[in-house]
Structure formats: C-alpha cells, structure tokens
Design brief:
Blueprint lengths: L3 H13 L6 E4 L3 E4 L8 H6 L6 H9 L1 H21 L18 H4 L3 H24 L19 E3 L6 H12 L11 H18 L3 E7 L7 E7 L3 H13 L2 E8 L2 E6 L13 E2 L9 E2 L4 E2 L16 H4 L5 E17 L3 E16 L1
Parallel strand pairs: 3-5, 6-8
Antiparallel strand pairs: 1-2, 4-5, 6-7, 9-10, 11-12
C-alpha cells in the first residue's frame, strides 16, 4: 500500500487528468487520450481511476457527477497551496511531482499537515458550492437560518450547503485513512485530525447580501450564509501551519493517542494542526528530506518577512538582474464609452538567491 498521503492525493490529483470521455496516464509520464467517440459508463470510469480505495470507488459509482467537483477542488488545492506559500522557503512546489511525492509530503511533517487540511477543506467547500449552483443532483441550497434578521434584512438567495459538503467531503477524504492496511496508526490519526481541522475552518460562514430598492437605495437586503473564498481559508490554515504542534503517539489510558510532544499533560486541541516529523529548513536541496532548496528563488530586497533576501536565501546572498516591463499608461476615457492607453516601458530590478 502507498503511504496515506500519496494514496489520498493521488486519488484526487489523478482525477484531474481523467475526464468522462477519458484520458489516462501511460507509463506515469504522458497523457494519452482515447477516441472522443468512446464514452464509458459509471462503473467502467470508476474502475480505471487508480489509487481509489473501495469505499471511494463506491462513492464514485453512485455519485459520478461528484467526481467532477472533486477534480475542480484538486486543481484549486494545487494552485492555492503554491500561491499561499509563494513567500516561504517551502513553497508547495513538490505538489507538481504528482503522482510521485517527495519526502516533505510523504512523512508526517507540518507541510503534509497543511496539504491534508487544505485538501479536505477544498473538497467539502467545492461540494457545498456545487449544491448551490445546481451541479449536483443529490443536494440543493442550504437551510434558511433560524434567527430573525434585523430591520431592512430578509433571508433569501441560495445558501451554500455546508452540511452536504462536510458529509460527502469527509466520506471521500477520510476513506484511505480508515483502511486497516493503509499505513501506521500514528500517521492515520494525524491525517484524520488535520483533515477535520481543515473542515472546521470552512464552517465559519459569512453573511452575504444583495441590495434591493429604488435607484440602488438598498432599502432591503436579501441575505444568506455563504462560505469564505478558498484563498482566505488557506490563509487561516497557514496561520495554523506556523503554530502547529509536534505530537507523539503514545498510550493514554486504554489506547494510544496523539499527544503534544513537549506538553503531554493536555490533549491535542481540536482546532490545531499537528505533525509527527520535524521539517528541514528547506535552504539546501536534499532529496532524502524532500527539500528542493531556495537557489534561484526570487526574493524581496526590501522585505523584512519570510520572502526577504536574507531569509529566503539563507544567508548565501543573492544576484540582481534587471527586467523590462511593458505596461499600459496615460489612459484616457472617451465619451462614450471606451478607454485608450499608451504602452510604457520601465526597468525593474529583481533578485534571485545564490
């Protein structure tokens, strides 16, 4: 069996490259498309998706349209993770190596904790929103809140179906970790815990409203409960990543549990990310540790944060270079109704780590 993280993410990310008409990996390196005229039914489609455990295959067979939503979630996980960590030494670039994962995501690191939490959050998030948009037959809009809105407000619209998203998302996300032969018990507990933390974060629904009234007066607001954008969820999880607790798997009462390594007098908090293995500093390339290093990474000379040249380059120094940018400038609005702009060129200085 593959390690839990590989098994889980391969199942999701392989879906990204397989469509209902179907494309699949050949020798793990290239995509080959079957003839467009070949359409596979649900059973055949789910059977050829490598990496799915039996309960995921069953979910696929009974909810094929759900797989397309999961494909979208997987794409967004990759993009959002890399964007969220663009200013860090570890920048989630190893997710590009799918279906082969480097040790930063194979081991029980805080990086693996973040990817698990974000993946679980994204799957539930996209399912909940797919209910709202009518893309899934098994669900519809979320329920109307029980409390009475304030003056000038009324409940309406189509709320994101958080309950259905959490229900179906957890069924798919947690299935590999609930298999008896899917790896060490410590890793399974860690990944189940972090997946639940990810789903907890999306439960913070926002009040979203649409104005009604004469000439845009907004005398009445129709409101509903909606999910935050995934980028905001990722930022919240990044904060939890930075303050994650290292844990150990040890007997507590009648069974083994995850407990904080340095503070074993309290249980693991439900809203904190946890990890089992310490991470490298990601300064130098080390394939055994899953570190790609920061050589040739861009840095910010004026920053005092994690993207500063001092921190990003780990004290090795940096090389400057210039880049010519062509931008729109001197834009003018013409009545009615178009804008004309000139093209201006300017030189900017960039910096890359030695």
């Amino acid at each position: 069996f593959l390690p839990e993280l590989i098994q889980f993410l391969c199942a999701i990310l392989r879906l990204m490259v397989q469509t209902l008409t179907i494309s699949h990996f050949i020798s793990g390196r290239a995509l080959a498309k079957t003839p467009a005229s070949l359409h596979l039914n649900q059973t055949q489609h789910c059977k050829i998706l490598e990496g799915l455990v039996s309960s995921q295959v069953q979910l696929c067979r009974s909810n094929l349209e759900l797989m397309q939503t999961i494909i979208q979630a997987a794409k967004e996980v990759k993009k959002t993770c890399q964007k969220t960590f663009a200013d860090m030494r570890w920048n989630c670039s190893s997710i590009e190596l799918v279906p082969n994962f480097s040790p930063d995501l194979e081991r029980g690191t805080r990086e693996a904790a973040f990817v698990y939490a974000l993946s679980a959050a994204a799957i539930s998030h996209f399912i909940a929103r797919a209910c709202t948009s009518g893309d899934l037959r098994g669900c519809s809009c979320g329920p109307i809140p029980g409390e009475i809105p304030g003056p000038g407000y009324r409940w309406g619209g189509c709320a994101d179906n958080l309950h259905y998203g959490l229900l179906m998302g957890s069924k798919f996300s947690d299935a590999p970790m609930k298999m008896k032969k899917s790896g060490s018990q410590a890793n399974k507990l860690m990944h189940l815990h972090n997946s639940e933390v990810g789903r907890q974060v999306i439960e913070a629904l926002e009040l979203k409203c649409k104005c009604h009234g004469v000439s845009g007066s907004c005398s009445i607001k129709t409101c509903w409960r909606g999910l935050q954008d995934l980028k905001d969820i990722a930022i919240d999880l990044k904060t939890k990543y930075l303050s994650a607790s290292k844990v150990v798997h040890r007997p507590m009462g009648t069974r083994k549990q995850l407990v904080p390594k340095d503070i074993d007098i309290r249980p693991v908090r439900e809203n904190e990310l946890v990890y089992l293995q310490s991470s490298p500093d990601f300064c130098a390339k080390n394939e055994k540790l899953g570190s790609l290093g920061t050589q040739d990474r861009h840095c910010n000379k004026t920053s005092i944060g994690s993207d500063s040249c001092d921190l990003m380059c780990c004290g090795r120094g940096y090389n400057p270079y210039t880049e010519q940018l062509i931008e729109r400038c001197n834009c003018k609005y013409h009545w009615c109704c178009y804008v004309t702009c000139k093209k201006c060129e300017r030189t900017v200085e960039r910096y890359v780590c030695k």
